[in-house]
Amino acid sequence: MRPFSLILFIVLMHALSAAASAQTADRTIDEIKAETFARAQTGAYPALGILPGDAADALGRIGTRDPDEWAAAWSAVADVYMAKARAASEPKEADANFLRAWRLYYFGQWPAPTSAGKQAAYQRAVEAYLQHARYFDPPLEVVRIPFEGSEIVGYLRLPANVPGPVPLVLAISGLDSRKETVAETYAAALPEGIGFFAVDSPGTGQAPSKASETAERIYSRVLDYLASRPQIDKSRIVVHGQSFGAYWAAKLAHTEAKRLAGAVTQSPPIHRTFQPDFFRGRMYTREYLFDLLPASLFVYGMKSADELLAFLPKMSLQAQEVLGKPAAPILVVGGTRDTQVPIDDLELLINSGSEPREAWINPIGGHMGRTASTWPDPVIFREVILPWEVRQLGHKRIN
Questions:
Q1: H runs (alpha helix) in the chain
Q2: Closest-CA residue to 196 (of 155, 235, 144)
Q3: Closest to 217 in 3D by CA, of 148, 297, 167
Q4: Inter-residue contact 183 to 172 (CB < 8 Å)
Q5: 177/185 Cα distance (integer angstroms)
Q6: Rounded to an integer, what distance in angstroms lies between the CA atom of residue 286 and that of residue 36?
Q7: C-alpha–C-alpha distance, residues 97 and 103, integer Å
Q8: In the predicted model, what is the mean pLDDT of residues 119-133?
Q9: Residue 119 CB coordination number (10 Å)
Q10: How many CA atoms lie within 13 A of 14 on its CB side?
Q11: Of the candidates 173, 332, 328, 350, which has an alpha carbon nearest to the alpha carbon of residue 260?
């Protein structure tokens, strides 16, 4: 095997020579490897929390775009951390290694478990995360809610030593994130006296059904369940969706307006995102690392781009006549340079209905409003989203 530094040099030269070509095809494997390593070095999505050395190790094992090869490479590095975690004598050491293993297995199935190898990596990611969760205080509860002959699996964490029923965020993951990633993020809400229920988007993770124009019924069932828990204040529930999850949050803000105290919609697809002319250009955007089309097909349970393009207009909230109806308070978060969800969709949501809307728009931001150096995902969450949720839920910060 050649040294990774030499591989990276060759990869970068290849990527530069192809940079001027039209974006009518996805990245090559060399381009994927170069971009992945670059993102690992800066902590950019989706390589958040992955050490550059681990990325170099995994990428050095990959030579093709075969999804099973991708999964096997990242899983091999993760396996080392799992072994370290199981052999550790100190809980802190074990937890740190389970956390690293989870991130690597998760990246091995990224962006979707479209092959047997990626599905195995996803299962290992869940197992590693739950091992990591054994060390949580307050604890994480795995909740299973019966749903249409299947079940909704979610993660519930409630703050400790808070008198009375607590406010809560219903946190919905995106197309390629998972309930584990949002659960990790929302640990920061617990010191604020706020609990969370993390759940997968339709068609992803352990969701009980594929994405469709009526899949929001999953979350209506979740709200039924949350209302049955005496520890939760059912009058103070906010929903937060990221990217594809923001679509469901925006829809729920209207369809479940009476049961929600607010909704955070972070880069919400609303209308134009689902139009064939836009989606054709979106399929190979370089803002997305790779395989946006295969991930989308997987989420909707479809076999071809033509089938997907014919269906997508049904997802439009404008076509469904949802916009303009009474809605819970909404915070819209995004970036004007987003190539995955156009700013038009955010403006459409902001300007619909009669209730005032709040917005945080990064004029140089991309998807989710992020910029790598100044507004990465954790900073947007800490400085924009969580403070809004704290205010909306009427809970004072605990200093």
A1: 4-18, 29-42, 52-59, 67-87, 91-108, 116-133, 179-186, 217-227, 244-255, 276-282, 292-300, 305-311, 343-350, 377-380, 386-392
A2: 155
A3: 148
A4: no
A5: 11
A6: 12
A7: 10
A8: 98
A9: 16
A10: 15
A11: 328
SS3 164: coil
pLDDT (tens digit per residue) in 259-300: 999 999 999 999 999 999 999 999 999 999 999 999 999 999
Tell me the C-alpha distance between 336 and 341, whole Å.
9
Up-side HSE of residue 311: CA atoms within 13 Å toward CB? 15
Q: With beta carbons less than 8 A apart as the criterion, state whether 225 and 143 touch.
A: yes
Whether the pTM exceeds 0.70: the reply is yes
Instruction: Round to whole Å and give the CA distance between 151 and 225.
Output: 12
Tokens 């594809």 -> residue? 244
Say which residue the tokens 């072994």 belong to: 83
User: Which residue is associated with the tokens 């990221």?
Assistant: 242
Residue 385 has pLDDT above 70, yes or no: yes
Pick the CATH number of 138-392 from 3.40.50.1820, 3.40.50.360, 3.40.50.300, 3.65.10.10: 3.40.50.1820
Q: How far apart are CA 367 and CA 160, in angstroms?
A: 34
Concatenated DSSP letters of 316-361: -TTTTT-TTS----EEEEEETT-SSS-HHHHHHHHTSSSS--EEEE
Chain-centre distance for alpha carbon 331 = 18
Report which DSSP code applies to 265.
E
Rounded to 5°, angle at Cα 110 from 369 and 275? 55
Closest by CA position to 248, among listed 138, 314, 171, 133 = 171
Domain-by-domain residue ranges, the chain?
A: 4-128, 138-392
Say if CB 289 and CB 112 are below 8 A apart: no
CB distance 200 to 216 below 8 Å: no
Q: What is the pLDDT of residues 41-92, one digit of tens each?
A: 999 999 999 999 999 999 999 999 999 999 999 999 999 999 999 999 999 9
Residue for token digits 């004072």? 396
Preceding amide of 111 cis, omega within 30:
yes
The Cα 159–Cα 157 span in angstroms is 7
Query: Which residues lie closer than 8 Å to 87 by C-beta, 6 or more apart?
Result: none
For the chain, the distance separating the N- and C-terminal CA atoms, rounded to the nearest angstrom, is: 53
> What are the distances in angstroms from CA 259 to CA 51, 64, 227, 235, 256?
41, 48, 9, 7, 5
